[in-house]
Amino acid sequence: MNLYSSPYSSIDIDKESKLMRVQWHKECSSLSEEAVIEELSKILLYLNEHAISYVLIDSRNYPFRSNENLQRWINFTYMPKVIDFGVLRYAILVNGKIASIYEDFQDEADVEDDLAVEYFTDTEAALQWIKS
What we know:
Blueprint: E1 2-5, E2 9-14, E3 19-24, H1 33-49, E4 54-58, H2 68-84, E5 89-93, H3 99-102, E6 116-120, H4 123-131
Parallel strand pairs: 3-4, 4-5, 5-6
Antiparallel strand pairs: 1-2, 2-3
Helix pairs in contact: 1-2
């Protein structure tokens, strides 16, 4: 079921499997920091409204990886709320894993909270991990 769609992203949920899928579109590269936060806030809104346990973010078109302000907001505002909303597994699709970008993120084995975060380059592998 589609919950949200804009030229920049779309959010779908499968209530039965408690899965939210988020797709960033190529057009998001034109967004300002504030607009990116607005798009990310839509995810939080729907996580709060629905009993979602699993999230799959397709970030392959998300161009803001080197933006310190956005990353700080994600780390200290967005992700704590994701945890508060009870998400158990958070999979992120990327074009390719780059150690310098991802080394600061917790690996599944290091998770202290109930939330596990993993990066994938393959959608099917991400979905298998979510289902495991």
